[in-house]
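Need residues for this backbone.
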């Protein structure tokens, strides 16, 4: 099955044309959006950017999901070029595991932010639950970022 994917016309286009640099550029932008906005939200929840209301942070969540969608599409595109190699690559498996963890944590954090941000706004303080979830979410996406760089730099050791 992996050979079929790796030898498909799409995978060949990715390897031998503008597919690779295009997908890699989109992947970097998607990652920057997700990691950047999660960290901006996290910094707000720990007390920076005090002029930004807690409730307005909810507007960033759809942009984060758009970044995740770009990451997934471009990531699958990159993966199709060498699927067997990536699945045997320790840093890739680490990264992909944290993508799943990051998505799950982002879903839960989105719920916490939507439910609790009005009370944070009223009281002027963030709940420990909110701080904990944003910290875990930021750590997961930071691990994705590190795993992606390790995949790029150490991947040649695995294939």
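Answer:
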């Amino acid at each position: 099955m992996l050979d079929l994917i790796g030898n498909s016309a799409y995978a060949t286009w990715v390897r031998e044309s503008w597919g690779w640099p295009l997908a890699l550029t989109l992947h970097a932008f998607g990652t920057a959006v997700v990691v950047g906005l999660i960290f901006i939200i996290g910094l707000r929840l720990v007390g920076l950017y005090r002029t930004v209301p807690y409730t307005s942070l909810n507007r960033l969540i759809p942009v984060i999901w758009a970044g995740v969608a770009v990451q997934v599409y471009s990531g699958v595109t990159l993966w199709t070029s060498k699927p067997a190699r990536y699945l045997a690559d320790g840093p890739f498996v680490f990264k992909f595991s944290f993508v799943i963890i990051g998505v799950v944590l982002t879903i839960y954090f989105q719920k916490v932010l939507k439910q609790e941000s009005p009370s944070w706004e009223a009281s002027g303080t963030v709940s420990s639950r909110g701080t904990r979830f944003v910290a875990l979410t930021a750590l997961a996406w930071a691990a994705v970022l590190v795993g992606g760089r390790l995949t790029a730099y150490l991947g040649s050791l695995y294939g």
